[in-house]
Backbone:
């Protein structure tokens, strides 16, 4: 499963990436990118998670994701704030289930 | 308090994020980000010129060695910041085309970028109509020359920060024209059998011709009135810039940013990165040439957003020292290092500050106080003006020192602002932490009771 995290500069979500990788299985990948790169890179991923601070971009992200047939969702604020890698990883798996 | 959050979500976050999501604003944001590296690169060379000020003991040595080569390396500054409007136009043309591709997928981004550049370049020469004849202006002053209609200072004057606003306007016109051409299929029809590549190569021909005529007509009409696009638009833009650059204007901007963060959306991105940054960038380029704009460049990350929006480094320090609840203790340890580099999403969402009546009050108030203090400290001359762009992750004090070209007063002001943040967060943190701690103790007690039973 390849997870793409989107936030405004790709800085704060990269903190979450490390915590998510602790709960990764073989073949999993997690990357953080700024919103502007979503379109160019989405094809390489299976699922898109959005930082809550740019949840107002959800409709745009959903549009791009839907065009590629990929699910997208906003990460829960609490999960994001506590940088809870386990919960974020579970959210990604649930979206693909 | 909950009522307040409700109102914010409905009446502030909704409209502002819709606005920030319009195609033009999204393209402006992306264009702004694309030009940031060039402002930082050029600042490096500017800081080299300022080294004697930054390290006074070595001043004579530096002047006799490194600074002798100023004319050589300053080119790195002139061509980056001196051409910033050119970079801006290319990036805005590219990203606006990208945004329009959502509705007109046949548009091409590179074509959009060069068409925008062409339109912008056509505003550079100063043409006047004198005695029924169009002439290119020529003039000579002590610091600049107008030669064949082109104003030259250190470099083409209109390529610098002053050109950004005009670049935005003409890029918009050019890309709309290009979009209309593609949308209504106004292109040169090639006979069947012509390779697609050849047809594409000619796709920009008609838009380029239309843009040429559009700009010639605009220039011609204005020339007849003795002016041009740059001169005409500089007045209204100066007005907008003066409002955003005033203390009152900046207070409103800061308030909007933090109100949005209070409901958990990226206020900095919505308000500052889209609307305010182009204005601050122009102010910065003016300051580099000796102007004295108080709010310029990335002043907010140097003096106000210490640890991120809401000056949360002060909160983190309070939590590290005084927090008793394990929730805040854990959070402060995890959030401390990112906070040093002004990344505070973990704190904003983890403490949380979002929707938290205990912490939003200092979160709103501190930036207003530090913005005001910064304004007066700079205007009183105790702190240097912002003359250099610095990466926004520069830690407290470092960014202020380098961004002002080595003003010690600036570093001290950043530390004073940090102290204000610590003092004002303290009582609110204490109240919130006591509540969390009481809850944790109660939870532990009920647990032991169940175990005992």
Residues:
């Amino acid at each position: 499963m390849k997870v793409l995290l989107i936030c405004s500069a790709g800085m704060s979500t990269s903190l979450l990436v490390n915590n998510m990788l602790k709960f990764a299985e073989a073949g999993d990948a997690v990357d953080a990118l700024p919103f502007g790169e979503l379109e160019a890179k989405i094809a390489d991923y299976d699922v898109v998670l959005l930082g809550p601070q740019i949840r107002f971009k959800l409709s745009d992200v959903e549009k791009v994701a839907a065009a590629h047939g990929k699910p997208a969702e906003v990460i829960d604020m609490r999960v994001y704030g506590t940088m809870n890698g386990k919960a974020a990883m579970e959210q990604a798996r649930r979206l693909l289930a | 308090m909950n009522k307040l959050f409700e109102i914010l979500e409905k009446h502030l976050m909704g409209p502002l994020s819709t606005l920030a999501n319009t195609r033009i604003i999204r393209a402006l944001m992306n264009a702004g980000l694309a030009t940031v590296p060039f402002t930082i690169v050029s600042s490096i060379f500017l800081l080299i010129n300022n080294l004697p000020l930054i390290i006074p003991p070595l001043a004579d040595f530096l002047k006799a060695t490194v600074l002798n080569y100023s004319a050589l390396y300053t080119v790195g500054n002139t061509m980056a910041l001196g051409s910033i409007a050119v970079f801006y136009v290319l990036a805005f043309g590219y990203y606006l085309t990208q945004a329009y591709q959502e509705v007109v997928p046949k548009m091409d981004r590179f074509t959009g970028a060069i068409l925008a550049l062409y339109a912008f370049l056509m505003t550079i020469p100063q043409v006047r109509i004198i005695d029924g004849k169009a002439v290119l202006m020529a003039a000579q002053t002590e610091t600049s020359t107008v030669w064949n209609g082109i104003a030259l200072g250190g470099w083409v004057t209109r390529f610098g920060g002053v050109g950004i606003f005009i670049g935005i306007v003409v890029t918009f016109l050019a890309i709309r024209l290009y979009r209309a051409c593609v949308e209504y299929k106004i292109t040169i029809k090639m006979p069947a059998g012509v390779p697609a590549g050849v047809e594409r190569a000619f796709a920009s021909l008609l838009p380029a011709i239309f843009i040429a005529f559009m700009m010639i007509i605009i220039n011609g009409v204005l020339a007849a009135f003795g002016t041009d696009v740059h001169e005409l638009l500089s007045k209204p833009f100066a007005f907008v810039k003066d409002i955003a650059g005033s203390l009152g204007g900046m207070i409103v901007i800061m308030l909007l940013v933090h109100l949005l963060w209070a409901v958990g959306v990226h206020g900095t991105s919505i308000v500052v990165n889209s609307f305010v940054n182009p204005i601050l960038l122009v102010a910065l380029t003016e300051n580099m040439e000796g102007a004295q704009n108080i709010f310029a460049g990335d002043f907010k990350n140097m003096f106000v957003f210490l640890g991120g929006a809401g000056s949360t480094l002060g909160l983190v320090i309070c939590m590290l020292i005084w927090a008793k609840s394990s929730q805040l203790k854990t959070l402060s340890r995890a959030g401390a290092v990112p906070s040093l580099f002004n990344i505070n999403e973990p704190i904003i969402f983890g403490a949380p500050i979002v929707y938290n009546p205990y912490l939003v009050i200092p979160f709103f108030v501190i930036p207003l106080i530090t913005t005001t203090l910064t304004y007066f400290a700079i205007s009183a001359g105790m702190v240097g003006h912002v003359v250099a762009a610095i990466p926004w992750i520069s830690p407290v004090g470092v960014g202020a020192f380098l961004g002002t070209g080595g003003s010690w007063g600036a570093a001290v002001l950043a530390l004073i602002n940090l102290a204000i943040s610590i003092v004002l967060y303290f009582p609110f943190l204490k109240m919130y932490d006591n509540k969390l701690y009481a809850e944790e103790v109660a939870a532990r007690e009920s647990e032991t009771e169940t175990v005992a039973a």
Notes: DSSP finds 21 helices and five strands in chain B. The beta strands of chain B are 127-130, 133-136, 139-140, 145-147, 150-152. Chain B has a mean pLDDT of 88.
